[in-house]
Amino acid sequence: MLLSSIVAVFALCTSALAQRATAPFTEPKSGITFQAYKHTSGYQFGIALPPKPGNDFIGHLSAPASVGWAGGDLGPKMVGKLLIVAWPNGGSVVGSLRRATRKSSPPPYTGAAKLKPIAAGTYANASHWSYTFLCEGCLADPAVGFAKDAPAGDLGWAAGARAPADKASANAGLSYHNVGAGSIQANFAQAKATGYDAWAAKAA
To answer: Which Pfam families does this one have (predicted)?
Structure first.
C-alpha cells in the first residue's frame, strides 16, 4: 500500500513537471524557433538563445484576444528578476520591462536592458496577439536575469484578463493576474539556435 502511494505521488509530480516544461515552438510569421511553455488558457512564453552565451535573448509572448496582458519572468518568483510584459493596443502590441520589489503592480525597470520588437512576429488580431522581441542586455546582470550558461532553469509566467487603462503607455499599471501564474521549467540547452544572429538582426 505504501509503495503504491509513493508511486502515485511520483507519477503526479512527474506529470506536473512535464506540464510546465518548455517544448519547441516555431512562431509562424517570423519563423523563429523557441523553447516555449504553453498554458491551457492559450498563454505562451518562449525563448531563443545564441549558440554561445551572451547578454541577449529573443523572446516571445502570445495569448488569446481575451487576455488583457501577459508576462514572462526571468526567474520563478515575481519579485527580484526582470519581468517582460506585453498587451495588445489596437492592431499593435506594447511591450514593457518591469522589476517587482514586492507583490503589487511591478514598476518599470530603470536599468540598461531594452526590448526591441521583431515586427514579423508582433501583431494583434481578432483571435490572438503576439509579441516577439530581442531582450537586449537582459542577461548582463545575473541579479535580474537567468544564468546565461545554465543548461536549464526555472522561469515564471503571469497573465491578466483586464488590459491596462492606458494601453498606449509602456508604463501603465497592471491588473491582477487572474488568468493564471506559475513557474516554468525551461530547457536553455535546447533553446540555443544556429539561426539566432539572423533572427536578432530583425529587431527594430
So the answer is: CDH-cyt
Grid coordinates given for 122: 508582433
This prediction has a pTM of 0.90
- Which residue type occupies 16? A
Which residues contact residue 62 at a Cβ distance below 8 angstroms, ignoring those fewer than 6 apart?
A: 27, 42, 43, 44, 70, 128, 129, 130, 131
Dist. CA 195–CA 185, nearest whole Å: 23
Question: C-alpha cell of 118?
Answer: 521583431
CB atoms under 10 Å from CB of 96, counted, come to: 21
Question: What is the layout of strands, in order, in the sheet containing 82-89?
Answer: 92-99, 82-89, 69-73, 152-160, 180-187
| Percent of the chain residues past pLDDT 90, beyond the cut | 85
Q: Quick: pLDDT tens for 15-43.
A: 344 568 999 999 999 999 999 999 999 99
Distance, CA of 51 to CA of 170 (rounded, Å): 31
Kindly report, residue by residue over 126-144, the tens digit of the pLDDT.
Answer: 999 999 999 999 999 999 9
> Quick one: which of 121, 155, 150 has its CA closest to 39?
155
CATH 3.10.290.10 fits 22-200, yes or no: no
**Residue spans per domain, the chain:** 22-200
Q: What is the secondary structure of 86-112 as a DSSP string?
A: EEEETTEEEEEEEEBSSSSSPPBP-SS
CA 152 to chain centre: 15
